[in-house]
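Dear support,

I submitted the protein below through the web form. The confirmation email said the job was done, but the results page showed an empty box. After a refresh the structure appeared. I'm attaching both so you can tell me whether what I see now is the final result or a partial one.
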Amino acid sequence: MTLQGYREDDRDLLTGSWLAGELLGLPVPDRPPLAEPATVPPPSGDDDELCVLPGVAFVRYTGLDWVHRRARVEIGLREGHEDAASMLAGLAVDHGLRDLRLHRLYGWITPAVSPAARLLTEAGFRREVSVPDGFWLAGKLVEREIWALTHDE
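What the results page shows now:
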């Protein structure tokens, strides 16, 4: 499977039950039924690239820095497709390094919501920093982490 460019028909993929802005946005377990779903705006400008795995997920490269060849990565995986997370992380890395020719991919994860360390490590990411009490979630402060992958040509 490969990532495809975003089309207007893919708009429903941009709303779901993951935590917005996550490097690996897996569906949030026990999410309250009335909780506002995460939404991602369609791409705008040349510092944002949005790709989809039709019917399954999106991968967004945002804050694209074409001079230094880096971008923040956000992934949103639809509920019921959690088994595709490992493949999707690999596709995101391949597209970022090969097609976009980026040298650094990075993003935030919230371990309390998405224990994705193994999947990110398999895709080549490494934890760079932990930010204790870095995010307000469900009425309390939780830890956030920045994970990154660098590629030198």
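Response: this is the final, complete result; the empty box was a page-load delay. The chain is about 15% helix and 40% strand.
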